[in-house]
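queue> pop job 88
queue> type: inverse folding (structure -> sequence)
queue> payload:
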């Protein structure tokens, strides 16, 4: 079934892969994107956005532009958002406006121009800390870390008896714990999509993305994905900066797998009304990831800098339980992590990146967001 699909934020890293996937399946694709400088630099159109894609350069908060973009559209993939936990904690109005109000404008315009289905990008950040088990085998959904008062204190959450908790894959039923303005906004996007779609006879789907990586990330944006930030540092001969002790664990999923998940979520009847984790189901420490990337980039002599400090809004462990997406969507990430890193490294070697990590770190420290 060929459709005309609007992809908001479709000129971004994930969006360009989604557009290519949709085109490969025979869909017509239109993109609405504001091409903000922090992400795109000074470009009129990303070089790797397929020429078959119609691009409307406008802000998702611009109602007239959204009305124009929705004309003749059968379905929507909603990716438009400000991205970055750290920056969201001081650029509060900007993140709330783009993420919350932008979704409100889009869904309001859909009242008069309804579509079959809208698929919205949510985020693993809404979970806060991931799911844990205590030593008695009980699940712990509300794990919290106490403020560190000494170097001997554990970085990891403890139970009420002071015993270590064990992180496990986080499923969709885990209660949200919104630890940053970015997480709050993604949850608002998710709920707005499902509420408005249900109220107006459309189908809504939300995908909670874990750490997406691959070629094409915004290397000069210090608030983007961690692998892009590490790549920028290594490319410039600088040490990747890792907060805490580097033992925090995450789930990294290749962008091509994520694009396939969006296309499936758009097409499969059984996806309607669902909220799905999209990750690899494999967890790695941030230090392990930095070291693997350095090897892939031929920078084995550059060790990561472990700063031993915590950023407000950061969590310790969160990785993906993939079983629901596998059962309902037939989705499994297929790209081997080391192969994906090699592809990322090859692409990075051909790029230039302005390293703004120290600047971003200073901005957070000046506002008391690093302790």
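queue> result:
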């Amino acid at each position: 079934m060929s459709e005309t699909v609007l992809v908001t934020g479709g000129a971004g890293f994930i969006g360009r892969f989604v557009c290519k996937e949709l085109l490969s399946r025979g869909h017509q694709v239109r993109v609405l994107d504001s091409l903000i400088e922090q992400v795109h630099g000074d470009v009129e159109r990303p070089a790797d956005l397929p020429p078959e894609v119609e691009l409307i350069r406008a802000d998702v908060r611009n109602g007239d532009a959204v009305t124009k973009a929705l004309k003749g559209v059968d379905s929507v993939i909603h990716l438009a958002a400000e991205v970055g936990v750290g920056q969201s904690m001081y650029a509060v109005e900007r993140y709330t406006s783009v993420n919350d109000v932008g979704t409100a404008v889009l869904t309001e315009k859909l009242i008069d121009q309804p579509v079959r289905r809208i698929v919205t990008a949510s985020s693993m950040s809404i979970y806060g800390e991931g799911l844990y088990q205590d030593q008695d085998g009980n699940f712990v959904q509300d794990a919290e870390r106490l403020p560190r008062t000494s170097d001997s204190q554990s970085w990891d959450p403890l139970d009420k008896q002071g015993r270590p908790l064990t992180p496990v894959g986080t499923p969709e039923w885990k209660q949200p714990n919104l630890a940053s303005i970015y997480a709050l906004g993604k949850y608002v996007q998710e709920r707005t999509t499902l509420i408005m779609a249900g109220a107006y006879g459309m189908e809504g789907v939300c995908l909670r993305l874990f750490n997406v990586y691959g070629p094409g990330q915004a290397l000069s944006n210090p608030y983007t994905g961690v692998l892009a930030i590490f790549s920028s540092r290594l490319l410039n001969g600088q040490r990747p900066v890792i907060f805490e002790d580097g033992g925090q664990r995450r789930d990294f999923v290749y962008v091509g797998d994520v694009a396939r998940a969006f296309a499936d979520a758009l097409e499969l009847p059984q996806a309607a009304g669902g909220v799905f984790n999209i990750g690899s189901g494999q967890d790695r420490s941030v230090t392990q990831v930095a070291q693997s990337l350095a090897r892939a980039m031929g920078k084995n002599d550059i060790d990561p800098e472990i700063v031993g400090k915590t950023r407000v809004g950061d969590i310790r462990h969160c990785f993906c339980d993939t079983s629901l997406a596998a059962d309902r969507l037939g989705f499994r990430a297929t790209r081997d992590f080391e192969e994906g890193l090699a592809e990322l490294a090859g692409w990075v070697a051909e790029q230039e990146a302005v390293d703004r990590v120290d600047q971003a770190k200073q901005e957070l420290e000046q506002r008391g967001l690093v302790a």
